[in-house]
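Worked example

This section walks through a single chain of length 238. The input is the sequence exactly as stored; nothing has been trimmed or padded.
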Amino acid sequence: MEQSGTSALLQGAVQDLASDVVSALRGGDHVRMSGTETVDDPEGSLSLAAVRVLGADLLLPHVLFPTPPVPEALTVFRRTVEAFPPRPDAAPTVRWSHWAMTRTLRRFDMSPPGSGSGGDEDLTAPDASWLDAATWQVLTHQLAVLAPLAVPGEDCAVSLVARRRPVDVARGFVRAVRRRDWQQAAGAGRWLTLLDGVPDTLGLETGLDFVELMGSSDPRVALQVQAARVMRVAGALV
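Given that input, the structure is written out below as tokens.
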């Protein structure tokens, strides 16, 4: 029961943070970091655990607009990067998520290596070869997990794989919608916003509207859809 209660608290904290990010994406404001406490015990902090789940997307509004994050948000983000380095046996998605957070942190915090913000070795991108032979179903699932990597102008090995397979990602988007997997559909839709060669018949904009409507109870779905909208508008203005 205690584990279940902790999981529910963590899920609620993640949803609160995601709601703050959505609000900032819609209004071009700072991420408020509602519900976060002063971090005295990093390893036992619910706030840091929630930020770890949300990943680099916590600072996404400041990347897209761009604006500097408030010091409180940057401090919690930095402490999360420091408190949750990937283990040697970590899954590729965990390694890539940590890399994305480290890269985002370095964008806003130019602390020198050894200061606790992550050294240069943390900016070395992990291997992405496991995606090369992935089926379109697996590819879409993995890309949805790594949706924080879908940022305009940010190249990495994962985004290069996605660019080579827009039709496969489109198929995965449709499959996720049919399976009512709104988080996966929203994450795939965010990637598709950045890809060339997406079939016009997909109707991505309408599809994202439907995903947002059906997944409206989950702020993490709204986050991905709103990110896609902001990036689509930004792309149209270029």
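What to look for: The chain has eleven helices and no strands.
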